[in-house]
Structure formats: structure tokens, C-alpha cells
Amino acid sequence: MGRLDHIRLDGVSRRYGDRRVLTDVSLVVPTGARTGLIGENGAGKSTLLRIIAGIDEPDGGTVAVPRRIGILWQEVPRSASTTVGCLLDAATDEIRALERELAAAAEALADGADGADARYATALDAAERAEVWSLDARLDVVLGTLGVADLGRSLLVSEVSGGQRSRLALAGLLLARPDALLLDEPTNHLDDAAVAFLRDELVAWRGPVLFASHDRAFLDEVATGLVDLDPVRTPTDPRGTGAGVASFGGGFSDYLSVKAAERERWQRRFAEEEQRLRDLRATVAGAGEALRFDGVRRDNDTFNVGFKGGTVERQVSRRIGNAERRIEHLETERVEAPPSPLTFAGIPAGFGALPDGEPLVTARDVGVPGRLHVDRLDVRPETRLLVTGPNGAGKSTLLALLAGTVAPRGGRLVRRKGLRIGLLEQDVRFADPAASPRAAYASVLGEERAARIPLDSLGLVGSLDLDRPIARLSIGQQRRVALALILARPPHVFLLDEPTNHLSLSLATDLEDALGAYPGAVVIASHDRWLRRRWMGEEIVIAPGEPLRQAV
């Protein structure tokens, strides 16, 4: 049988306890195709990738994949014993083995050994697909472009940041050149140059690529098609209780157009059927009224009533009966209203803004040695500041400095008295991961305030996830919980480090829109090109080694 060159799933299902994650998922990713997986947080994107990689088993259905398949995790685990050098060596071991097999096959061919022709042809094909001869040259390019070339090979992986671990893992995957790629949020932790490099690598990839991503610009540039993994919602099944997936051709902009048109048709059909019901009910009410005589009878009405009355009453009764049957049928068969998406509900009541006057935070000649130097920065109540720049320039350090989680050296850093600052970090951590979102929320706010502003009223955590352990939620769902814990007590200065990372496409857009009307100061550090294109406020680009100075 020939080498399988595509990814195929037929009827794949998976449950965790009483929770359905995947139901009857079927899809094909042909060779050369780049399919983007989208869907709400917790819809099963990471689970599906794990099943395809052979790490998890489906409860039902079949999976067929090429022999060499590589996967990039959304969060690369720490390793207390693995070094950077060992990680990279492991990524290239299989290619080195292919190179050795090709040399051995060539020797066997020269010696005239039995079956040497077939062995050499197989080894040559594998070596060509893995690009064996360009490995050393690609090693320098990949490590340099992804910003991990300067990491010492003896450095433990556990000692590098989460972003560096992700970029190391991505570098290893690209160097290994597997037949098929599975990527879980591949652009997290990548700056513009690294995203452009990855885009070019994937567009030129020979085998099938399946990637889950929140990056709307990346989906537009890379995807040849999208698969929406949310339970498929239809006019007759608005809650998505059915099975399967919805597939779309093109990138994210095409998907938005199709979904908008679908919802408009659904809403129009719902409105038309509602109007038809109102008309039929009015017909029944009006016909019933006509049967009740409330006029003055004339002398010859006795004959008319006897002769015509029965006929008229029968006609009116038929009209009522027909209308009532149509109402019954329509009420049974009509579509439900289009479901309202889980949307960001905004800021709870009770936000107390500080009086106007001096800046909320003032920084002058403040430094964090080896990471960042701030020459001048003022954060005012109306500040809307977007901070961009390559990895390592100091964006996260700036937010930590403003939040007070990193101590400055020298200069002057002043925070206004009574100031409340909230920081949404890239890597969220919870004091008790075994607690539920509802319990964590109550412990932060107190029972009384949590009851007054329920967690589910913020539009960030679905009702089915309120009482599940946080540790069992997806990374995106955990980030929603962390965001809710901040917004329940809205800060005067809201700092967000890569806020759209791990969030679903719809929620990321809702959050961006809501931040524009936030009643306090907002400072965002982000690589998200979609967000940056729509940004209407101030922007500062941090260059590595250059002092940060806000325009006056």
C-alpha cells in the first residue's frame, strides 16, 4: 500500500465523564492543504489534535494519518532535566537517522544486495521529503528567526520562559520536517518577524497542516479552509445538540462573511414565522368575534338568520379551524431564535473612577537592568495605550513595572494614592487549580459581592463550566476566569499582556470593543495584528535596547 499523504477522520467522538467534547467529527486535510480549526474555548480543538497525534484515543470513529506526524502544544511543558541542546538534538535525530539510512542503502545498492533498489528508493524519498541536505543551514535560520539562537545549549528547558519554550518547540518541529503538521495556537509568543517566517514555512509545506488558532490575521493569510468545531447550530437545532463540524473555504474574512449571511437568513426566517403566527392568531381572534352578534336585528333578519346564518357560521368555523391547525403546525415546526453568542458583558456597576488631575502612574528615568529602560511615561484616566515590539524588547516587563510586580532601579515611579491596578498576565496561575471558577470568584470578591455580581453575568464563563475544576478547563477558559476575577473589581489601570491569546475569535473581538469604552486607563501589550489594525488609541513601539519615551 502506498504512503498515506493526508489526514482523515471518520465519525470521531470523545467524552470526558458526562461531558461531550467531540461527536461524530469527520474531516479530510489533503496534502498541501492548511486547515484552520476554530471554535469557542473548550470546543475540543486541543482534544482533536491530541487524538490525531495518537496521544489520546477516541471513544468512537477512525483516524488515518501519515507515518511521520508532528505536533506543537499550546503550552509546552517544563522539563527539569532536559537541556536546550537535548531538545534540539531530539528534534533532528530522525532526520540524522534518515541520512544514515540513505548512506547504508547506497552502500547496499553498490554491493548489489537483494532488494537494494527498493530500499534505496524508499530511503531517497524519505530523505528528500525531510530535506536532509539542508538541515544544518535551516538550523541557523530557524533558531535565529524565532529568537532562540542565543539560548545556551546547556541551559535547562525549565529555566527558560514559556514563550521561549514554545519557540524552541516550534523550531524543533520545523527542523524535523514531519509529513504532517498539527499546531495548537502556533503564533502565541511570536513577534511579527517570526509570524511572517512561520507563515512562509506553512504556505510552502508539502504535507497536510491542521492548526488551531485564535490569530485572525494568521488565519486569513495561511488557511486554505476553516473547520468550526463548535457543535453545529442550525435553525432547527440552535443549541448545537447535533453532531459533526461545519467547514468553510478560504480564510477568516471569508468565514465572517458566510457566518454573517447565515445568521441574517436565520433571523429573517425567524421573524417571518413569528409574524405569520401573529397574523394567524389575529385571524382566529377576529373570526371568533364575528360569530358574536352585537348589532340591531331588522324585521326580515329572521329569515336571513335561519337561511344564511348557518352557512356563515360554518364558514367562519372552518376559517378558525384551518387557522388553528396552521398555528399548531407552525408552533411545532418553526425555528427558534438565533442563539445569542457568549459575549463580553462589560464592566459591572460600581466602578469608582478617581478624580481628574495628576496622572495615575508617572515613570521618569526608570529601569529594569538588562530588560527595559523607561525615559518618560504617563498613564492617565483616559489613556488607551498599545505597546508593540519584537520579543525581548520589554513589553511584559513594562506592564509588570506599572503593576508593581517588578521592582524598578533608579528614577521615579509614582502611583496615585488609592489606585487599583489589574494585570492580566500571559501565563495565568491560580492559587487553587482544583477549585471551581465559581468558588475562586467568591474567594476573591467575597460571598456578598459575588452574589450581587454573579460570575456568569460577565459573559466570560459558560454555565456548564462554572462548577468544574479550573485545572480541567482549557487554557482559553482559564484565561477567561482570570479576566473575570479582575473585572469583578474593575481596576483604575487595566494592564493586559497579549489579551487575545487563547481567547476564541468572537470573544477576542468583543473584548477589544469593550476595552474602547472602559472607564479607566487601558494599557495593552500585543503582537495581534488584527487588534493593531483596528486600534484607535496611542501606540508605542519598543525597540530592543532603546529607551521608551512617550510622545508629549
Automatic annotation (TrEMBL):
Alphabetized SMART domains for the sequence: AAA
GO molecular function, one term: ATP binding
Sequence ranges assigned to domain ABC transporter in this UniProt record: 7-260, 355-552
Pfam family for this entry, one: ABC_tran
InterPro entries documented for this protein: AAA+_ATPase, ABC_transporter-like_ATP-bd, ABC_transporter-like_CS, ABCF, P-loop_NTPase
Domain of life: Bacteria
PANTHER family xref list: ATP-BINDING CASSETTE SUB-FAMILY F MEMBER 1 (PTHR19211:SF14), ATP-BINDING TRANSPORT PROTEIN-RELATED (PTHR19211)
Protein name per Swiss-Prot or TrEMBL: ABC-F family ATP-binding cassette domain-containing protein
Organism of this sequence: Labedella endophytica
UniProt lineage: Bacteria, Bacillati, Actinomycetota, Actinomycetes, Micrococcales
